[in-house]
Design a protein that fits this description.
about 650 residues, alpha+beta, Phosphatase 2c, domain 1, Neuraminidase, 5-stranded mixed sheet, 9 helices, 33 strands, elongated
C-alpha cells in the first residue's frame, strides 16, 4: 500500500491531479487462510458467513476532508477466512438499485451461478457503470491418486505368453446400452397397450403364460373350477347335516304335526323321511301356535280392563246407595257411617282379587299404583317449579381479563429466577457471553458475583455498552465522561473523547471497534474510531433527517436498530430503511432492543405489556414471553448460547429460559 501511495503521489507531482477525490479502489489479498483489505473511496467489501452479511470495508477509507495522494490507502483490515465464505466486492453504485438486505437475501436465495446471473442482469439493465466481484471460498481438496496394480505372478521372458499379442477387446458398452434401450422401449409399449404381451396370472393357478399357452390355461382353469364345485357341494351337505342335528336337539312343546302326505314338498327332495326329521316345519308350526296365543292374550287385555272397571263401578254404586240410606236413616250414627262411606270394604276387594287371574291382578295393581303415585309426583313437580321461580338470581361474575389473550405465540412464564439482588441497577451488558450488571457505582460479574467499584472521580453511571472485539465495557456518567472497564484485570481507565458541550446523549452502542453516540437534542449520530487512550475525531454517521428525541434503546449489527417507545427504526449507512415489524393484537411499545453481529433475531422489551418479543430478520413475530414482573425492567439482554434472557430492575436481576 505504501508503494501504491508513492506511485499515486508521483502522478500528482507530474500534474495529473484530476483523479484526487474521485479515486475509488479496493485491494484484497488472500494469504493462506487470511484476507487483507484496504479501501479508497466508496467501494465496499461484504463477507457472507452463516447466513449473516458483514460490511468489511466500513471505516477503512481515509477520513481526511482534503484528500492527499500519500494517504490514499491508509488502513488495512485483516481476518481469517472459513470454508463456504462468500466475499462480495462492489462499487457503491449497486446501492442505487439494491439495499443491503436485498443483496443479502438474494445471495442466500440463489445458488452461485444463478446469483451471478441475477447481478449481471440487474446491473446491466439498471446501471451504466458498475463492477462486482464474487469470491467463493472452498476448502482445498487433494485429488485422489490413481492406484497402480501390479501383477504378482512371476513373469517368464522366454515363455510363449511373452510373445503372445492379446486380441483387441471389443467395446461392448454401446451394444449393451442399445439392448437396454430396446428392452425399455418394449416395456413401455406394453404399458401403453394396456398390458398386452407377456402377462402372468397368480390367483392360485400358478404362473401361466398367455403367449402360446391358452389351452394349458383353460385346462388348468377347468380343473380348478371342478375342484371348487365338489368342495362347495361337500360343504353344503355338511352344513345341512350339522344344522339338522342342532335343530333336532331343540326342546319344543309337543305339537300335532300334519300327516306325511300333507307335508309340503316344494323346494325339498322327496324322501321317505318321518316328519319329525324336518326341523324347519316344526319351527314354523311352533311359531304359528305361539303367535296365535300371543294374539289371543293381548286381545283380552282391553276386555280385562273393562271387566275390572265394571266390577269397581258396580261395587262403588252399591256401597254408595247403602251408605246413603244409612246416613239419612240414622243421624246419630252420622260419623260412623261417613267413615264407612270413605273407606272401602277390604273383604269384598280381597274376594274380587281372588277371582281374578294372574294378568288381571297385575293390571289392577298397576292402576291402583298409578292412582296413588301420580298425584304425589304432580305435587312434587309443582313445588320444584315454584321454588325455581322464588330462587334469587345469582350475582353477575366480574369478567377476568387475560393479558395478551388474543396475541399469537405467547409463552406465559410461571416464575422468574432470581440471579442477583442489589440497588440502583441501570444497565445489563452481555460481553462475549458473560453477563454484567451495572449500577450507579459498581459493575457485578453475575457468574462469579464479584463486584468492582467505579473510580471516585466518576459520577453516577447513566449509559453502558460492551465492545466484544476489545473485551471491554464503556460507561458514561451524567456529565458525559467516558471510562472503560476490562473484566480480566478488573481495572478502569479514562478514555479521551470529544463530546459537544451541553449535549444530551440518549443512547450508546458499539460495532467492531467503533463507538456510536446518539444525541437527542441535535438529532445526530456520531461515530468515533478507536485511538490510543480513547477515541479519535467523530464523524456524522447520519445522512438523512431523523427525530432522535424519543430514542430509548439501541442495538447494532450490520444495521442500526432504534427503539423510541412506539416504533422500531432500521438504519443502514446513515439512511433509514423500510422495516415494518409484524403487528400484534396488543400494540407493541418497544423501550429497549437487543441484537448483535451475526445474530438474525431481534428482541425488544415492551414494559407496558410485561413482555419480551422475539422477531426474525424480516420482522415476523417468533415468540412472546410474558410475566407481570417484566413491567418493572429497566434494561435487558439475551444470552443466545445458553438460551437465557436477563432483565434488570432497579433492585434485582432475574432470568428465564427462551426457546
Amino acid at each position: 500500500m505504501h508503494k501504491a501511495n508513492l506511485a499515486l503521489s508521483k502522478l500528482a507531482e507530474h500534474g495529473n491531479v484530476k483523479w484526487i477525490g474521485k479515486f475509488n479502489a479496493l485491494v484484497a489479498v488472500i494469504e493462506k487462510n487470511n484476507l487483507h483489505l484496504s479501501q479508497a473511496g466508496t467501494v465496499s467489501a461484504f463477507l457472507l458467513r452463516s447466513k449473516s452479511m458483514t460490511d468489511l470495508s466500513e471505516g477503512l477509507a481515509s477520513g481526511e476532508t482534503e484528500p492527499h495522494p500519500l494517504k490514499t490507502f491508509v488502513n488495512v483490515s485483516s481476518g481469517r477466512l472459513e470454508d463456504d465464505d462468500k466475499i462480495i466486492l462492489t462499487t457503491d453504485s449497486i446501492f442505487d438499485i439494491f439495499s443491503f438486505d436485498e443483496i443479502k437475501k438474494s445471495s442466500l436465495r440463489f445458488p452461485e451461478e444463478k446469483f451471478v446471473q441475477f447481478l449481471k442482469t440487474a446491473l446491466g439493465n439498471e446501471l451504466e457503470q458498475a463492477a462486482v466481484l464474487l469470491v467463493d471460498m472452498q476448502k482445498k481438496t487433494e485429488p485422489e491418486r490413481p492406484v497402480i496394480r501390479r501383477n504378482d505372478a512371476a513373469a517368464n521372458a522366454f515363455s510363449q505368453s511373452a510373445f503372445y499379442k492379446a486380441p483387441a477387446q471389443k467395446n461392448l458398452a454401446p451394444k449393451i446400452q442399445k439392448e437396454a434401450e430396446s428392452d425399455a422401449e418394449r416395456e413401455d409399449r406394453k404399458k401403453r397397450s394396456g398390458g398386452a404381451g407377456h402377462i402372468y396370472i397368480k390367483e392360485g393357478f400358478g404362473e401361466i403364460s398367455r403367449r402360446g399357452g391358452a389351452r394349458e390355461f383353460l385346462s388348468e382353469l377347468g380343473k380348478k373350477v371342478v375342484s371348487k364345485k365338489e368342495n362347495l357341494q361337500g360343504s353344503v351337505r355338511n352344513s345341512g347335516r350339522l344344522l339338522s342335528e342342532k335343530f333336532s336337539n331343540i326342546s319344543m312343546p309337543k305339537i300335532k304335526l300334519p300327516s306325511k302326505s300333507a307335508v309340503p314338498t316344494a323346494g325339498y327332495p322327496v324322501r321317505d323321511t318321518p316328519a319329525k326329521k324336518w326341523p324347519a316345519l316344526r319351527i314354523k308350526n311352533y311359531a304359528r301356535k305361539y303367535s296365535q296365543a300371543a294374539k289371543n292374550t293381548f286381545s283380552r287385555i282391553p276386555e280385562s280392563f273393562c271387566d275390572i272397571a265394571r266390577k269397581f263401578s258396580r261395587m262403588r254404586q252399591n256401597q254408595a246407595s247403602e251408605k246413603a240410606k244409612e246416613i239419612f236413616g240414622s243421624i246419630g250414627e252420622k260419623s260412623k257411617k261417613a267413615s264407612a262411606f270413605v273407606l272401602p270394604d277390604f273383604s269384598k276387594i280381597r274376594n274380587l282379587f281372588s277371582g281374578m287371574d294372574r294378568q288381571q291382578r297385575i293390571y289392577a295393581g298397576l292402576i291402583v299404583a298409578a292412582i296413588l303415585i301420580v298425584p304425589f309426583l304432580g305435587l312434587k313437580i309443582n313445588d320444584y317449579f315454584e321454588g325455581k321461580k322464588a330462587a334469587p338470581l345469582p350475582e353477575p361474575i366480574a369478567e377476568v381479563l387475560i393479558p395478551l389473550a388474543e396475541d399469537k405465540n405467547v409463552r406465559r412464564l410461571e416464575s422468574l429466577e432470581l440471579v442477583h439482588s442489589g440497588s440502583s441497577f441501570t444497565n445489563i451488558v452481555n460481553l462475549n457471553g458473560k453477563i454484567f450488571s451495572i449500577s450507579q457505582s459498581e459493575i457485578i460479574d453475575l457468574e462469579s458475583k464479584e463486584s468492582s467499584s467505579v473510580p471516585e472521580n466518576f459520577g453516577e453511571t447513566k449509559l453502558a455498552a460492551g465492545m466484544d472485539d476489545l473485551n471491554i465495557i464503556f460507561l458514561i456518567d451524567t456529565e458525559n465522561k467516558l471510562i472503560s472497564f476490562s473484566p480480566v484485570p478488573k481495572k478502569f481507565q479514562d478514555n479521551a473523547i470529544a463530546v459537544p458541550e451541553n449535549s444530551e446523549i440518549a443512547a450508546i452502542g458499539t460495532y467492531l471497534t467503533y463507538l456510536y453516540l446518539f444525541y437527542s437534542e441535535n438529532n445526530r449520530i456520531y461515530r468515533y474510531p478507536r485511538a490510543t487512550g480513547g477515541f479519535g475525531e467523530a464523524s456524522n454517521w447520519l445522512r438523512s433527517d431523523l427525530d432522535l428525541s424519543r430514542v430509548s434503546g439501541v442495538a447494532i449489527s450490520e444495521n442500526i436498530f432504534l427503539a423510541d417507545g412506539n416504533n422500531i427504526l432500521k438504519m443502514f449507512r446513515g439512511n433509514k430503511e423500510d422495516f415494518s415489524p409484524e403487528e400484534s393484537a396488543t400494540e407493541i411499545n418497544p423501550v429497549r432492543i437487543y441484537t448483535r453481529r451475526n445474530l438474525a433475531e431481534i428482541y425488544i422489551l415492551d414494559k407496558e405489556n410485561s413482555r419480551i418479543v422475539k422477531f426474525d430478520a424480516d420482522g415476523k413475530i417468533i415468540s412472546q414471553y410474558y410475566h407481570s414482573e417484566i413491567s418493572q425492567a429497566v434494561d435487558f439482554t439475551i444470552d443466545t448460547e445458553n438460551n437465557t434472557a436477563y432483565i434488570s430492575t432497579s433492585t434485582e436481576i432475574k432470568s428465564f429460559q427462551i426457546n
